[in-house]
Amino acid sequence: MHDHQHSSTRFPVGVDAALREAGWQPGRWDIRQAEEWADALRAHTSPAGHRHAVFPAAVEAWAEFGALHITASAPGRHIAPAAVRIDPLHGLHLARTLGDLGRALETEVAPLGAEGDEQAVLAIDTEGRVYSIDHTGDWFLGQDIDEALATMVTGTQPARLTGA
Fold first, then answer.
1. Less CB within 10 Å around the terminal CB: N or C of the chain?
2. CA atoms of 155 and 120, how far apart (whole Å)
């Protein structure tokens, strides 16, 4: 088992500290919880008939980071870091919103969690890219969950999605 000290280089120091404080550790994998969430999302249909997409990138993110409540200890680089809660059920009633975003991005999007006091919902696409959706618009947080967590924990200003 060669881990190559993966843990020391995967995340920036402050991000690694915030994740560990929240209960994450390298190799964390709660597939049972992830599967429960997948079942709950698959079973849900909005009143207008919208359904959730569930795919491997989302399930993997839920399994590794699910149920974590991550708070930054340092002030943000550009904006105040928001507390992050990885729990796809925060997006349960947003099947239509996530479906619209997926269509705009020409992919499928699944819920990932919430940012702050649920003022923003986090979403992940089939490639593992992460987005934040709030009343001001749709934001791109990172090419993968690692990058997105770093963006949020360090308070880096995310890029706004245009035309979505």
1. N
2. 15
- pLDDT tens digits along 33-76: 999 999 999 999 999 999 999 999 999 999 999 999 999 888 99
b or e along 66-78 (b: 16 or more beta carbons within 10 Å of the residue's beta carbon)?
Answer: bebebebeeeeee
Contact 50, 21 (CB under 8 A): no
Domain assignment of residue 118, given as a range: 49-158
Judged against a pLDDT cut of 90, whether residue 2 lies above it is answered with: no
User: Per the domain annotation, does 12 fall within a domain?
Assistant: no
The gap from C-alpha 48 to its chain's centroid, in whole angstroms, comes to: 25
Residue 31: inside a domain: no
Sort 13 into a burial class: Cβ within 10 Å, 0-12 / 13-18 / 19+.
exposed
Which residue from 79, 57, 58, 63 is spatially nearest to 139, judged by alpha carbons? 79
Q: What is the pLDDT of residues 72-88, one digit of tens each?
A: 888 999 999 989 999 99
Could you give the CA distance from residue 30 to residue 74 in angstroms, rounded to a whole number?
28
Ordered strands of the 159-160 beta sheet: 69-70, 84-86, 109-115, 120-125, 130-134, 137-142, 159-160
Q: How far apart are the first and last CA of the chain?
A: 44
pTM beyond 0.90, yes or no: yes
